[in-house]
């Protein structure tokens, strides 16, 4: 039997399926500024959405911190124990001075925000099934696997969200990961290496971190990009391969890793996609999910420029303007849109038979 968790609690229908907590943001004596990652970008996204009157505090689903028992659904106890050593966390987060902090501070100021984002991704997985779509404003720690972290990723939130769904939600037995961060998602790839229930599509800069050749064996649809790839080529490849992936895999849920480190000028991504290109990319993925009637969970993943928060907010606003996400639609859609579609098709078939 699955363990008891606080992450699958009932969410009021008045809430948007947008998950966030102020605890996502990492701030401690300026140490977060020693990594190119904007460790406060998640709060900035929410503030932009509030300014545009899309959401308010009481309409957001408040993320809860993943407990050790939650994390053990995927992670080994040995790995979680390693995180009690500050030098291990310093290596994973790529912030060397963390090495000198007492671990109780590291737990509170660095790992608790990451555990809360991880809880948010797990929660958003269930919300996506219930409402048809969900966005965790954080998460997307795609370099972390069950027994190893890296690249600012300490917990395997994508793997956890999928495993929770497989264990706890009837009718969810196949998942497709669409990873469009600039970096290869080697964490979830290692976790699902021999799992035929999980189909992985990964589009990334072939020349940058992590270059994990072993993990690449898990990718069912691999699109490797060159330095400086621009909008036209990129969007054409995304459109073609997202359709191909969904036609091949026919999943019960899409996990969309929507990294913004593909942005032109990103110090780590090495690609040259415009802000408008990122907004269009997200639109392509959400439209494909809608057309195929597959629930979608989006996580925000990497993005190493100050302007990425504004771009993420603009993309969410665009999805809303196009009615690819909508609160009323979400609350009125099926508990499981795929099941609802099957019911409607069955009724239609019976009607057609009676008319013959």
Automatic annotation (TrEMBL):
Keywords: Chromatin regulator, Hydrolase, Nucleus, Repressor, Transcription, Transcription regulation. GO terms for cellular component: histone deacetylase complex. Its EC number is 3.5.1.98. It is found in: Nucleus. Gene3D superfamilies: Histone deacetylase domain. The keyword Hydrolase applies. Its main location: nucleus. Residues 35-316 form the Histone deacetylase domain. GO terms for molecular function: DNA-binding transcription factor binding; histone deacetylase activity, hydrolytic mechanism. It catalyses: N(6)-acetyl-L-lysyl-[histone] + H2O = L-lysyl-[histone] + acetate. Belongs to the histone deacetylase family. Interacts with HDAC6. PANTHER family: HISTONE DEACETYLASE 11, HISTONE DEACETYLASE HDAC1-RELATED. This is Histone deacetylase 11.
């Amino acid at each position: 039997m699955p363990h008891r968790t606080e992450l699958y609690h009932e969410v009021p229908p008045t809430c948007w399926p947008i998950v966030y907590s102020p605890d996502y943001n990492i701030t401690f004596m300026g140490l977060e500024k020693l990594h190119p990652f904007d460790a406060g970008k998640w709060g900035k996204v929410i503030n932009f959405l509030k300014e545009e009157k899309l959401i308010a505090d009481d309409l957001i689903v408040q993320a809860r911190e993943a407990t050790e028992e939650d994390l053990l659904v995927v992670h080994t106890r040995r790995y979680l124990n390693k995180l009690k050593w500050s030098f291990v966390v310093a290596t994973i987060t790529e912030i060397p001075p963390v090495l000198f902090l007492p671990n109780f501070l590291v737990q509170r100021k660095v790992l608790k925000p990451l555990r809360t984002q991880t809880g948010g991704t797990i929660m958003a997985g269930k919300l996506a099934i219930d409402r048809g779509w969900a966005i965790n404003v954080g998460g997307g720690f795609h370099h972390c696997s069950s027994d190893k972290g890296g690249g600012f990723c300490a917990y395997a939130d994508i793997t956890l969200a999928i495993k929770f769904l497989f264990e706890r939600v009837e009718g969810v037995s196949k998942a497709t990961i669409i990873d469009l961060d600039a970096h290869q998602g080697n964490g979830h790839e290692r976790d699902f290496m021999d799992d035929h229930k999980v189909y992985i599509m990964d589009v990334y800069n072939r020349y940058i971190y992590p270059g994990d050749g072993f993990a690449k064996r898990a990718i069912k649809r691999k699109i490797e990009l060159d330095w400086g790839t621009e909008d036209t080529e990129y969007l054409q490849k995304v459109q073609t391969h997202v359709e191909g992936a969904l036609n091949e895999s026919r999943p019960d849920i899409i996990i969309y890793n929507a990294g913004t480190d593909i942005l032109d000028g990103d110090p780590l991504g090495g690609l040259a996609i415009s802000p408008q290109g990122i907004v269009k990319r997200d639109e392509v993925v959400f439209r494909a999910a809608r057309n195929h009637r597959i629930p979608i969970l989006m996580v925000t993943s990497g993005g190493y420029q100050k302007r990425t928060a504004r771009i993420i907010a603009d993309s969410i606003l665009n999805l809303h303007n196009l009615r690819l996400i909508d609160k009323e639609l979400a609350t009125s859609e099926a508990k499981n849109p795929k099941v609802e579609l099957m019911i409607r098709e069955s009724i239609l078939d019976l009607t057609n038979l009676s008319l013959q």
